[in-house]
Amino acid sequence: MNLISLFITSAIVNNIIFSQFLGACPFLGVSKKIDTAAGMGIAVIFVITLASVITYIVQKAILDTLGLQYLQTIMFILIIAALVQFVEMFLKKSAPGLYQALGIYLPLITTNCAVLGVAIINITKEYSFIEAMVNSVGTSLGFLIAIVLFAGVRDKVDNADLPESLKGSAISLVAAGLMSIAFLGFSGLQL
Amino acid sequence: MVIVSAAAVTGGIGVVCGVLLAVAAKLFAVEVDQKVIEVRNALPGANCGGCGFAGCDALAAAIAAGKAPVNGCPVANKQAHEKIASIMGVTADESEKKVAHVMCQGCDTVAKQKYEYNGVPDCKAAAAVMGGNKSCDKGCLGFGNCKVVCAFDAIEIVDGLAVIDKDKCTSCGKCVEECPKAVIEFVPYKNNVIVGCHNKDFGKAVKDVCSVGCIGCKICEKNCAFDAIHVTDNLAKVDYDKCTHCMVCVEKCPTKAIQGDLLSRKKAFIVEEGCIGCTICAKNCPVSAIEGELKKTHKVDPDKCIGCGVCATKCPKKTIEMK
Fold first, then answer.
1. What is the complex's ipTM, to 2 decimals?
2. SS3 B229
3. What is the pLDDT of residue B5?
4. Residues 6 or more apart in contact with residue B91 via CB below 8 angstroms
5. B25: contact with A, CB 8 A cutoff
6. B95 backbone φψ class: left, alpha, beta (φ>0; ψ -120 to 50)
7. CA-CA distance, B245 to B250, in Å (whole number)?
């Protein structure tokens, strides 16, 4: 499978939110405004890519060599949490501008299952290192696309005349479901 | 054996992560000014953004750095301002309090309707349909989006027009941000002479859509004795620093576009005992309402007096009271 088709597949066809249903919590939580949604999306790209590099190395260098593959989940969670903390501290010192922009989203991402999901998919699909990186960037870009599109939809929905019982989260979930069905259309793509 | 190696690997990586983080915390420690923390604690912590900064943390940093005034928080009360001032080692001079004001008087009885709007009762939704149902493109639509976002219950919708209670307003700026017509502005709390119109069209065009709009006739500008009101782009604007609340413009405005309560107008009153008859007040009075000969007690003609207070500020004996 060549890298371009892998990239498009991970970003759109197998969109992390709409077809894999990972990372739905920040997707619903941080999608009230397009600006903040975009900020969250960019922070997720940043963290997923970094986390994939580290977890891939740990998996190949430590877990596989020692035959401890069953520790994968707990190790990855440990590494992702530590990594996000580290990145936050590093950014605060060396790139205050970027820290200001991503600051509040970084701790939120620690518990984002999309990060763990991508790290595990990279291993279970037996990607090479390059493929794993392409998959990580593609998947997180898919998250950015999804959350920004959804924020746009919510912006419109906010102004709509809704029955009282549907207001808020209820209509958001309905809208997310409909968008998911729309993204299902991509699944026929043969790349 | 397996369990030992599993525990060792997990524990080992945990320790490595922990040590790395501890080292990183030392290495990348950002010096936080003690003042920032203290100022932050003195602020209300509502993160409303009314100060113009990204939140209380950002304002605290700006105050500590001297980039924002100690009373930069519009929501905090006087005690909090004084506390922040003492942290910063300065005295809090009472800065001018500002309040939000709807720059439109086009209630349903005076503003013409462009069409009958039957959609969602929401300003943004109405504004999306040809700019709203009021004929005036700049007017308040009166569906009350501002009222909904106001956390202080300071906004009422009266006859299709938002009205802000300036005593309840904390100038948090939520309504200013929300209004799709950008008709809400900040004005000084003390000021009560305000041009209640945003329409920059020519006179006839304004007259066609609203009977209380500013037509740019410049009568106010010509009559103002203090150079405090100017017409630019067919719209009068009060210079709040120069305005003395004499309300001559309010009286003269042919369309009553200038808001001001004439009943609250003050009158100058000379305390007889103190007056030395220097004639300074009479010379400075813009409407010649003060009469009196040199070295004799002066009198204010209450019918002529417009309550501008110029005499009171000029009087060397401070013997003129504004009542």
1. 0.73
2. strand
3. 86
4. B85
5. yes
6. beta
7. 9
